[in-house]
Specification:
The structure is a homodimer. With about 190 residues, the first copy, chain A, is mainly alpha-helical. Helices cover about 60% and strands about 5% of the residues of chain A. Chain A has 7 helices and 3 strands; from the N terminus they run αβααββαααα. Chain A has a 3-stranded antiparallel sheet with strand order 1-3-2. The longest helix of chain A has about 30 residues. Chain A is globular. Chain B binds a DNA duplex (28 and 28 nucleotides) through helix 2 and helix 3.
DNA sequence: ATCCGCATGTAACCCGTTACATGATTCT
DNA sequence: AGAATCATGTAACGGGTTACATGCGGAT
């Protein structure tokens, strides 16, 4: 039934629509307003992606509500179908892989931002815990690699570049731990 | 003369070849061995890219050196042409834009790693200084944005995600400052 | 003799970018 | 009425992924 799996972009669109029914243009504005629009989708990416989501039955354009004359012609507001909501929740539950956590960090943060009203607190904490574990593993591997090639690195720059990675992922790990503490404060604990 | 500008991927391939003449397979191995091959190029991306670089006259396959029987059939080792070296140096000199420094951080680190034997120390320091400035500007903007939307952020997660960005880019900035200090120690200063 | 790793290449497919086209709504 | 903005769409193009094809070289 399901064809190939969704693009990252499609997943993010679907997530936004799950959060708030939106039109294509509305989504564009959201991307533009978002902290420093790191990615500004083009029309040629946006509208075809929405059509694909619609064809899969993950979203549907709201039927023009105005029963009168010309019912909101041209404006297509999409909302998520039950299938779409399920697909989105499923995506949010994708495990964090320590081998690719560095490459996918931005994506994981996106997922974290989107799971606030979809997951119960304990599942959010579980996600953050997995993220922290993956980051810890990754940094450990990086340290190990650094130690292994300590001498025969061709020059100072590669070593400094490694240091950068280490510094950044450690900061990310500290953030994850802080976020866990912050969110745990509200939800004291699953009582056991 | 020059068609459209090179892909990021093409620039990185060119840079590697400038550093060390390599075959396609050799480049593949380099990517695989590099700290956790965040990106593993496929044959379908690698070989066509090398052909494009060759057609532009940026690299050229070494003539089979063995004058005897079958001169290293099948192995194509590329080396950079003067044009290629110039294009690479030019790419390394691309300014760091504070508006996109977050998106391009990985790329800038890649460039930093590659400029060790291409640039004189003072130019490397200049690059790091520009990077630091851009990161400082970017984090300042992020802080400003955070303050502006402090109240009407819909939930806790978006705020935490912003905190993550801030933490990471601050770590990057600290690294840049550290790298400047580290490299300046060797090159005391341009004497004025 | 065969199997595996080296090494290069190609074709189908998909998606994002660029650039353009088009119509509706609102402001002046 | 005319301009700017809202809003959706499409065509050409390019490049990356997947998957496959091919040939050479050394190992068992």
């Amino acid at each position: 039934m399901a064809g190939r799996q969704l693009t990252t972009f499609e997943h993010i669109l679907l997530g936004q629509i799950c959060l708030t029914p939106s039109s294509g243009y509305g989504l564009k504005r959201i991307f533009a307003a978002t902290p420093m629009g790191l990615y500004q989708p083009s029309s040629g990416a946006l509208y075809p992606a929405l059509h694909r989501l619609e064809q899969r039955g993950l979203v549907q354009a709201q039927a023009p509500p105005g029963p009168d004359s010309h019912p909101a012609r041209h404006r297509r507001v999409y909302e998520a179908t039950p299938t779409g909501l399920a697909a989105h929740a499923n995506w949010l539950r994708t495990p964090v892989d320590s081998a690719t956590v560095a490459r996918d960090l931005g994506l994981h943060l996106m997922r974290f931002a989107m799971m606030e009203y979809v997951f119960p607190p304990h599942e959010v904490l579980e996600f953050l815990q997995n993220l922290a574990t993956a980051l810890a593993q990754f940094t450990a591997q990086l340290e190990q690699y650094t130690a292994a090639v300590a001498t025969d690195l061709g020059g100072r720059h590669p070593r400094l570049a490694l240091d950068h990675g280490l510094a950044v992922y450690r900061a990310s790990l500290r953030w994850a731990e802080h976020a866990i503490a912050d969110l745990s404060a509200v939800v004291p604990a699953p009582s056991l």
